[in-house]
Fold Carbamoyl phosphate synthase small chain.
Amino acid sequence: MKRHLVLENGEIFEGTAFGSLENSIGEVVFNTGMTGYQEILSDPSYCGQIVTFTYPLIGNYGINRDDFETITPFVKGLIVKELCQLPSNFRSAYTLDEYLKLKNIPGLAGIDTRKLTRLIRQHGALKGMFTGVDENPEDVVKKLKETVLPTDQVSQVSTSKAYPSPGRGKRIVLADFGMKHGILRELNKRNCDVIVVPYNTTADEILQLKPDGIMLSNGPGDPEDVPEAVEMIQGILGKVPMFGICLGHQLFALACGATTEKMKFGHRGSNHPVKELSTGKVALTAQNHGYTVSSIENTPLEITHTALNDGTIEGLKHKELPAFTVQYHPEASPGPEDANHLFDQFIEMIETTEKEGVV
């Protein structure tokens, strides 16, 4: 069945429908990863977005039971150049088409994804809508321009109740702003006693759990739309060692007086080079964010990492307190694991503060 992708600037792409036939509206973004479409599809940070894959062939190893980053995907749709209907992989349980139908997620195949990506790079992330070919494009464009995308993505993807992931090691409270399971897996590997809490848990409620450290997870949307999380971080800073990832990095920056801004088209992919300023070492990183920390002027923060492609801030640490954050994803999934050692660095920071009695 033929379907259209209509963008708010009037551009129309005609392709073949797969997955659900829902007329979905979302922010159209692109991801440059060559593999990992299952993890990308299930990453809660893509809540409310239609994801375009720049790699031309998607679905060739199917969907398996193990590589999900959340149980329920929150993407609004997928766009691919060529959809593989006959995957070849011993772990494959579904085709991509079958899985999208199960989860009621629309897809569009057979369009010029290079052209679409160039449009996004030129104009920035655009609102888009999947429609039938018989719908009036002018009416769709008008609807897109009138549509205000939701700002409550974090509340949609966060857990509603606290739950444990028991271990015998350090007790880590993991604030869930849209947590990828990869973060939890890395903490479990280190035998941490993890308690996952909702995004709106207060500082007092977290401190009552007697944590050794607090992890601020990734998540979707604008960090300024989560003021309760900023307040929580301010109430915990200096009392418990802290490590933040992606949205957690941005929320930490806001809590310390920094500013954030929306990027033109964001960083989404598995091959972004990041430089550690203290050592000069460069790591290839997995990234997925549409906002960035724009300024740390007059704050107690120090820049630790920068992106080599555009110079944006990729890591921060507090000059006086045991707290550091990164904009990229050290847990990978998908992508390189060059920065996986940051989880060990977090545990070492906790042990150091306990020995020195800093916190």
Summary: The mean pLDDT is 97.
